[in-house]
Amino acid sequence: MTTETEHPRRPFLARGSNVIRCEQCQMPAKACICDFQVNAQAQARFWLLTHRKELYKPTNTGRLIVDTIRDSEVFPWSRTEPDTQFLDQLHDPEFDPYIVFPEGEGYEERMVEFEHKPGRKPVFIILDGTWRQARRIFRQSEYLKDVPVIQPQTQRKTRYNLRKPNEEHHLCTAEVAAVMLAQMGDQASADLLDAYFDVFNAHYYASRRSRVVEGVDDAKALLQQAISQCEPR
Protein backbone atom coordinates (compact mmCIF):
# COMPACT_ATOMS: atom_id res chain seq x y z
CA MET A 1 0.00 0.00 0.00
CA THR A 2 1.34 3.43 -0.87
CA THR A 3 1.84 5.70 2.05
CA GLU A 4 2.70 9.31 2.74
CA THR A 5 4.37 10.44 5.92
CA GLU A 6 2.08 12.71 7.91
CA HIS A 7 3.11 16.33 8.20
CA PRO A 8 1.17 19.37 9.44
CA ARG A 9 -1.23 20.82 6.94
CA ARG A 10 -1.47 24.52 6.30
CA PRO A 11 -3.62 26.51 3.90
CA PHE A 12 -2.39 26.88 0.32
CA LEU A 13 -2.30 30.66 -0.19
CA ALA A 14 -0.71 31.08 -3.61
CA ARG A 15 -2.46 31.46 -6.96
CA GLY A 16 -5.36 29.01 -7.17
CA SER A 17 -5.87 28.85 -3.40
CA ASN A 18 -9.58 29.63 -3.80
CA VAL A 19 -10.16 26.66 -6.12
CA ILE A 20 -12.31 23.83 -4.76
CA ARG A 21 -10.05 20.78 -4.81
CA CYS A 22 -10.39 17.02 -4.49
CA GLU A 23 -9.13 16.05 -1.03
CA GLN A 24 -7.37 12.97 -2.41
CA CYS A 25 -5.57 14.05 -5.59
CA GLN A 26 -5.52 17.81 -4.83
CA MET A 27 -6.67 18.57 -8.35
CA PRO A 28 -9.44 21.07 -9.02
CA ALA A 29 -12.62 19.10 -8.27
CA LYS A 30 -13.82 19.31 -11.86
CA ALA A 31 -10.49 17.84 -13.01
CA CYS A 32 -10.19 15.02 -10.43
CA ILE A 33 -7.96 12.14 -11.56
CA CYS A 34 -8.55 9.71 -8.68
CA ASP A 35 -10.18 7.22 -11.05
CA PHE A 36 -6.80 6.73 -12.73
CA GLN A 37 -4.67 6.01 -9.64
CA VAL A 38 -2.86 2.68 -9.93
CA ASN A 39 -1.56 0.69 -6.96
CA ALA A 40 1.40 -0.71 -8.91
CA GLN A 41 3.91 -3.12 -7.40
CA ALA A 42 7.07 -1.83 -9.03
CA GLN A 43 10.56 -3.32 -8.79
CA ALA A 44 11.62 -0.31 -6.70
CA ARG A 45 10.04 2.15 -4.32
CA PHE A 46 10.65 5.86 -3.88
CA TRP A 47 11.38 8.02 -0.87
CA LEU A 48 10.84 11.68 -1.59
CA LEU A 49 12.73 14.23 0.49
CA THR A 50 10.49 17.19 -0.20
CA HIS A 51 11.37 20.83 0.32
CA ARG A 52 8.90 22.61 2.60
CA LYS A 53 7.90 25.00 -0.20
CA GLU A 54 6.80 22.05 -2.34
CA LEU A 55 4.77 20.14 0.26
CA TYR A 56 1.56 22.09 -0.28
CA LYS A 57 1.76 23.03 -3.96
CA PRO A 58 -1.00 21.40 -6.03
CA THR A 59 1.34 21.42 -9.03
CA ASN A 60 3.95 19.32 -7.22
CA THR A 61 4.37 16.03 -9.10
CA GLY A 62 6.01 14.06 -6.30
CA ARG A 63 2.65 12.91 -5.01
CA LEU A 64 1.95 11.30 -8.40
CA ILE A 65 4.66 8.79 -7.54
CA VAL A 66 3.02 7.97 -4.21
CA ASP A 67 -0.34 7.65 -5.97
CA THR A 68 1.08 5.17 -8.48
CA ILE A 69 3.98 3.18 -6.99
CA ARG A 70 3.16 1.05 -3.95
CA ASP A 71 5.16 1.57 -0.73
CA SER A 72 6.54 4.94 -1.81
CA GLU A 73 6.69 7.69 0.80
CA VAL A 74 7.09 11.44 1.23
CA PHE A 75 9.30 12.91 3.96
CA PRO A 76 9.64 16.64 4.67
CA TRP A 77 13.27 17.68 4.32
CA SER A 78 15.16 19.31 7.16
CA ARG A 79 18.86 20.09 7.24
CA THR A 80 19.22 19.79 11.01
CA GLU A 81 16.21 17.72 12.13
CA PRO A 82 15.70 14.93 9.61
CA ASP A 83 12.62 12.76 9.86
CA THR A 84 13.35 9.91 12.29
CA GLN A 85 11.40 7.35 10.27
CA PHE A 86 13.39 8.30 7.19
CA LEU A 87 16.67 7.84 9.07
CA ASP A 88 15.57 4.48 10.46
CA GLN A 89 14.67 3.22 7.01
CA LEU A 90 17.82 4.70 5.48
CA HIS A 91 19.95 2.51 7.77
CA ASP A 92 17.74 -0.58 7.58
CA PRO A 93 19.63 -3.37 5.74
CA GLU A 94 16.33 -4.45 4.19
CA PHE A 95 16.65 -1.51 1.80
CA ASP A 96 19.18 -0.63 -0.90
CA PRO A 97 18.92 3.17 -1.25
CA TYR A 98 20.27 5.41 -4.02
CA ILE A 99 20.09 9.19 -4.25
CA VAL A 100 18.94 10.26 -7.70
CA PHE A 101 21.11 13.21 -8.72
CA PRO A 102 23.30 14.27 -11.66
CA GLU A 103 27.02 13.61 -11.49
CA GLY A 104 29.25 16.50 -10.50
CA GLU A 105 32.48 17.56 -8.87
CA GLY A 106 33.20 16.63 -5.30
CA TYR A 107 31.31 13.36 -5.09
CA GLU A 108 32.57 11.34 -8.04
CA GLU A 109 33.44 8.40 -5.77
CA ARG A 110 29.78 8.08 -4.77
CA MET A 111 28.48 7.68 -8.32
CA VAL A 112 27.26 4.15 -9.08
CA GLU A 113 25.23 2.17 -11.58
CA PHE A 114 22.12 0.34 -10.43
CA GLU A 115 22.73 -3.24 -9.32
CA HIS A 116 20.16 -5.72 -8.03
CA LYS A 117 21.22 -7.00 -4.63
CA PRO A 118 19.58 -10.27 -3.48
CA GLY A 119 17.46 -9.87 -0.39
CA ARG A 120 17.40 -6.07 -0.49
CA LYS A 121 14.66 -3.76 -1.77
CA PRO A 122 15.81 -1.03 -4.18
CA VAL A 123 14.88 2.50 -3.13
CA PHE A 124 15.37 5.67 -5.14
CA ILE A 125 15.61 8.81 -3.01
CA ILE A 126 14.42 11.82 -4.98
CA LEU A 127 15.16 15.35 -3.76
CA ASP A 128 11.81 16.94 -4.45
CA GLY A 129 11.92 20.65 -5.20
CA THR A 130 13.19 23.11 -7.78
CA TRP A 131 16.66 22.44 -9.15
CA ARG A 132 18.04 25.08 -6.79
CA GLN A 133 16.24 23.52 -3.82
CA ALA A 134 17.35 20.01 -4.79
CA ARG A 135 21.01 21.10 -4.97
CA ARG A 136 20.67 22.64 -1.52
CA ILE A 137 19.16 19.44 -0.11
CA PHE A 138 21.96 17.38 -1.65
CA ARG A 139 24.78 19.60 -0.39
CA GLN A 140 23.47 20.40 3.07
CA SER A 141 22.18 17.00 4.24
CA GLU A 142 25.05 15.45 6.18
CA TYR A 143 22.97 12.33 6.85
CA LEU A 144 22.98 11.58 3.12
CA LYS A 145 26.76 11.75 2.66
CA ASP A 146 27.27 7.97 2.71
CA VAL A 147 24.41 7.12 0.36
CA PRO A 148 25.45 6.19 -3.20
CA VAL A 149 24.34 8.48 -6.00
CA ILE A 150 22.84 7.38 -9.30
CA GLN A 151 22.39 9.61 -12.33
CA PRO A 152 19.29 9.40 -14.56
CA GLN A 153 20.34 8.28 -18.03
CA THR A 154 18.02 9.99 -20.48
CA GLN A 155 17.83 12.45 -23.35
CA ARG A 156 14.19 13.23 -22.65
CA LYS A 157 12.86 16.76 -22.59
CA THR A 158 10.25 17.66 -20.02
CA ARG A 159 6.56 17.35 -20.89
CA TYR A 160 5.54 19.30 -17.80
CA ASN A 161 3.62 22.38 -18.93
CA LEU A 162 2.42 23.75 -15.57
CA ARG A 163 5.78 25.30 -14.67
CA LYS A 164 8.56 26.54 -16.92
CA PRO A 165 11.92 24.84 -16.25
CA ASN A 166 15.24 26.63 -16.64
CA GLU A 167 16.28 24.01 -19.20
CA GLU A 168 14.21 21.59 -21.32
CA HIS A 169 16.23 18.64 -19.98
CA HIS A 170 15.30 19.54 -16.38
CA LEU A 171 12.62 16.94 -15.74
CA CYS A 172 10.01 17.24 -13.01
CA THR A 173 9.97 14.81 -10.08
CA ALA A 174 7.50 12.32 -11.58
CA GLU A 175 9.36 12.26 -14.89
CA VAL A 176 12.64 11.51 -13.09
CA ALA A 177 11.01 8.63 -11.22
CA ALA A 178 9.73 7.13 -14.48
CA VAL A 179 13.21 7.39 -15.98
CA MET A 180 14.70 5.54 -13.01
CA LEU A 181 12.16 2.72 -13.26
CA ALA A 182 12.98 2.28 -16.94
CA GLN A 183 16.71 2.50 -16.19
CA MET A 184 16.50 -0.43 -13.74
CA GLY A 185 14.52 -2.48 -16.26
CA ASP A 186 10.97 -1.97 -14.99
CA GLN A 187 9.50 -0.47 -18.15
CA ALA A 188 5.93 -1.52 -17.31
CA SER A 189 5.89 0.53 -14.10
CA ALA A 190 7.64 3.41 -15.85
CA ASP A 191 4.90 3.44 -18.49
CA LEU A 192 2.18 3.55 -15.82
CA LEU A 193 3.80 6.46 -14.02
CA ASP A 194 4.33 8.30 -17.30
CA ALA A 195 0.68 7.73 -18.19
CA TYR A 196 -0.57 9.03 -14.84
CA PHE A 197 1.70 12.06 -15.19
CA ASP A 198 0.30 12.76 -18.65
CA VAL A 199 -3.27 12.55 -17.31
CA PHE A 200 -2.38 14.91 -14.45
CA ASN A 201 -0.65 17.32 -16.81
CA ALA A 202 -3.52 17.39 -19.29
CA HIS A 203 -6.31 17.69 -16.71
CA TYR A 204 -4.60 20.46 -14.77
CA TYR A 205 -3.71 22.41 -17.92
CA ALA A 206 -7.26 22.13 -19.25
CA SER A 207 -8.80 23.19 -15.93
CA ARG A 208 -6.67 26.33 -15.83
CA ARG A 209 -7.97 27.37 -19.22
CA SER A 210 -11.51 25.97 -18.99
CA ARG A 211 -10.80 23.69 -21.94
CA VAL A 212 -11.69 20.11 -22.77
CA VAL A 213 -9.06 17.53 -21.83
CA GLU A 214 -7.38 16.20 -24.95
CA GLY A 215 -4.61 13.84 -26.01
CA VAL A 216 -4.57 11.36 -23.12
CA ASP A 217 -7.08 8.68 -24.16
CA ASP A 218 -4.33 6.08 -24.60
CA ALA A 219 -2.82 6.95 -21.22
CA LYS A 220 -6.20 6.58 -19.53
CA ALA A 221 -6.83 3.25 -21.23
CA LEU A 222 -3.46 1.91 -20.04
CA LEU A 223 -4.16 3.03 -16.47
CA GLN A 224 -7.67 1.60 -16.40
CA GLN A 225 -6.41 -1.74 -17.67
CA ALA A 226 -3.74 -1.78 -14.95
CA ILE A 227 -6.25 -0.81 -12.25
CA SER A 228 -8.39 -3.81 -13.15
CA GLN A 229 -5.39 -6.09 -12.56
CA CYS A 230 -3.88 -4.47 -9.43
CA GLU A 231 -4.71 -5.08 -5.81
CA PRO A 232 -7.05 -2.43 -4.38
CA ARG A 233 -5.61 0.20 -2.07
From TrEMBL:
GO process annotations (BP): tRNA processing
Q: Which residues form the DTW domain?
A: 18-209
Q: What is its EC number?
A: 2.5.1.25
Show the GO MF annotations: tRNA-uridine aminocarboxypropyltransferase activity
Q: Which InterPro entries match?
A: DTW, DTWD2/TAPT
Tell whether S-adenosyl-L-methionine is among the UniProt keywords: yes
PANTHER family reported in the protein's UniProt record = TRNA-URIDINE AMINOCARBOXYPROPYLTRANSFERASE, TRNA-URIDINE AMINOCARBOXYPROPYLTRANSFERASE 2
Listed name of the protein: tRNA-uridine aminocarboxypropyltransferase
Specify the species: Pontibacterium sinense
